[in-house]
Amino acid sequence: MASTYSDLKIELIGTGDQSGTWGTTTNSNLGTAIEQAIVGKADVTISSASVTLTLTDSNALQDARALFLNLTGTPGSAATLNVPAIEKNYIVKNGTNEIVTIKVAAQTGVAIPVGKTVLVYNNGTDVVTAVDHIPSLTLGAALPVASGGTGITSFGAGVATFLGTPSSANLATAVTDETGSGLLVFATSPTLVTPVLGTPSSGTLSGCTVDGTDAVGFRNTPVNSQDEAYETVLADSGKTILHPVADDNARIFTIPANSSVAYPVGTVISFVNLQNTVTIAITTDTMYLANDGDTGNRTLAEYGMASAMKVASTTWIISGNGLT
Questions:
Q1: In what order do the strands lie in the sheet with 100-103?
Q2: How far apart are CA 35 and CA 84, in angstroms?
């Protein structure tokens, strides 16, 4: 009977086979194959986007059997390391310059960041995280904020410069220790200064905009110019949708259904047409023509102006000049 091989490629000697030489095979099984699976290390070069480790019917050293995989190389982009679909633990160190995902081919696997070492388990279908819960843990150094740590000392010198040196480990106490005015906004009577909010005048904000361009208040209506068919969005609330002179084609501007864009009741959207005609369309909501009661889409003539107001969850009223 010929030898067969286990998942880890341990040679299984057939009954009665290898008379006088079975000891050599057994020594290779124990001293090479099994030992490699328990404590062995393999250096694996990741030189391309995808590298595959395989196992063959041999109890000689094979990288895919090793416990510890030391990844090296410069793949140039995120890479994958495919391993055989067998049950096995791996400790993997990513010494490359890119993220490497270890997995079974066509599966998801585990992504290993650059310079990190992870413990994973191949369950025979895919590679998964071997440890996802630690009941108790003592660290030799503070856990960085980037890894979930907390505490004022974790934020670095920038925070210390802003708050000053806390007199207590308790942040609340440290804040009450601050005194002064101006930029020290934790003072009893802070003074708002120009670099922060601009110069307040009689309680009125100055120099402030709603979107980086348009001033706070009712000085102007922001304009959204459209020279193609257009469906309004939530940000169009309070704006004018303009059909410019540069476009001499008839266009359709559509107010979407409440189920698609839930404008607040009281929303007003205006329309101005400077060329040809514009159809102001409504989808599944109802749009009434003011002083008439007709419902449905409306046509806005050249140089016409109209405004539509949402008066209920699915109800609009529209009125204007040049509107039919």
A1: 50-52, 79-82, 100-103, 110-112
A2: 19
Single pTM value for the model: 0.48
In this structure, the strands spanning 298-312 and 268-273 are antiparallel
Residue-range domains of the chain with CATH: 4-129 (no CATH), 145-195 (no CATH), 223-323 (2.60.120.640)
Whole-angstrom Cα distance, residue 275 to residue 300? 10
How far is Cα 72 from Cα 63, in angstroms, rounded to an integer?
13
Dihedral pair phi/psi, residue 104, rounded to 5°: -85, 140
- List, in order, residues 6 or more apart from 232 with CB less than 8 Å away: 241, 253, 254, 255, 256, 261, 269
Give the pLDDT of the chain (324 residues) as one tens digit per residue: 789 999 999 999 999 899 999 999 999 999 999 999 999 999 999 999 999 999 999 999 999 999 999 999 999 999 999 999 999 999 999 999 999 999 999 999 999 999 999 999 999 999 999 999 999 989 898 887 777 776 655 555 555 555 555 544 455 554 444 454 444 545 555 555 544 445 555 556 666 776 777 766 656 889 999 999 999 999 999 999 999 999 999 999 999 999 999 999 999 999 999 999 999 999 999 999 999 889 999 999 999 999 999 999 999 999 999 999
- Rounded to 5 degrees, φ, ψ at 35 are -60, -40
For strands 4-5 and 11-12, give the pairing. Answer: antiparallel
